[in-house]
């Protein structure tokens, strides 16, 4: 009984909030570098196999979104380009480019934090892979607050 | 008179066909590596500043499309992430991911060869940047034949 209870507790640790916190940590790293603070992790079997945060300014490269780096890193870890059975946690709803990359990856699950009604894949109707399930709103307020803090700071500096 | 005539001739060399042939050369490199043969170059002021060909199999990475590599290389060459005043020549109509990346790059022109009615950005209605003009059909038959040759060869090997 004691053991079962303990194992159940452990199981509960690895929920969407747990992994989204890891993605938020990545977003904080982006913030510290003066990058639009978006972070991502990719998880398989409750294990983080890839991390990424936005580096478009640092690398002078529009393709350097958090998700793109995480997709490349996860494929590298797995030794294959498909991310079946994987879940992406990303603090902001993916854009067309990232959703397009996720389409090719055939990833199982996408969990995002804050919505991006202007440039996000939902309103722009980017096609996801039929095997992919997407949901949002996990730690949305934290992700959104971090973005707001970034843009306020940026406005004050300029 | 002699000189003017010569300079006019030179001007005419650098048309869409000239640069699409460079993109087709890149597609041939992909073919030789057993990759789906798609190639791309990025041009500014009649000068090729970036090249790329599909490397998704070689790199085990769904993001390694010809266009994505060319975008990164061109930004690297220019020392800035925006590709204003640039033209992308690509042998196949860009997918959602690549069109999404091109959106962020604010590239001036996209010229593609063959249409991709299934996975291309036109039918999937990927949003391009308002400053971007896209046209297609340049050496479309050559690009298409190369793709057909690749898939026939692949079928015969399996």
Automatic annotation (TrEMBL), chains A, B:
InterPro entries: APOBEC/CMP_deaminase_Zn-bd, CMP_dCMP_dom, Cytidine_deaminase-like, MafB19-deam, tRNA_aden_deaminase
E.C. code: 3.5.4.33
Pfam families: MafB19-deam
GO BP terms in the entry: tRNA wobble adenosine to inosine editing
Family: Belongs to the cytidine and deoxycytidylate deaminase family. ADAT2 subfamily.
Signal peptide stretch: none
Role: Catalyzes the deamination of adenosine to inosine at the wobble position 34 of tRNA(Arg2).
Record keywords: Hydrolase, Metal-binding, tRNA processing, Zinc
CDD domains associated with the record: nucleoside_deaminase
Domain named CMP/dCMP-type deaminase: residues: 14-123
Record-annotated active site: 67 (proton donor)
Domain of life, per lineage: Bacteria
Cofactor: binding details: Binds 1 zinc ion per subunit.
Transmembrane segments: none
Catalysed transformations (reactions): adenosine(34) in tRNA + H2O + H(+) = inosine(34) in tRNA + NH4(+)
Cofactor: Zn(2+)
Subunit record text: Homodimer.
Gene (name only): tadA
GO molecular function, one term: zinc ion binding
Name of this chain's protein: tRNA-specific adenosine deaminase
Xref: PANTHER family: CYTOSINE DEAMINASE FAMILY MEMBER, TRNA-SPECIFIC ADENOSINE DEAMINASE
């Amino acid at each position: 009984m004691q053991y079962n209870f303990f194992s159940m507790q452990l199981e509960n640790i690895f929920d969407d909030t747990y992994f989204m916190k890891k993605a938020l940590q990545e977003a904080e790293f982006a913030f510290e570098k003066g990058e639009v603070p978006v972070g991502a992790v990719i998880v398989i079997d409750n294990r983080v196999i890839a991390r990424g945060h936005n580096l478009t300014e640092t690398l002078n490269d529009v393709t350097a979104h958090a998700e793109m780096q995480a997709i490349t890193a996860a494929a590298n870890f797995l030794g294959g380009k498909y991310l079946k059975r994987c879940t992406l946690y990303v603090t902001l709803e993916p854009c067309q480019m990232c959703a397009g990359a996720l389409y090719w990856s055939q990833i199982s699950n996408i969990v995002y934090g804050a919505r991006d009604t202007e440039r996000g894949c939902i309103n722009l109707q980017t096609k996801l892979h039929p095997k992919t399930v997407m949901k949002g709103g996990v730690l949305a307020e934290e992700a959104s607050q971090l973005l707001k803090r970034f843009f306020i700071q940026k406005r004050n500096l300029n």
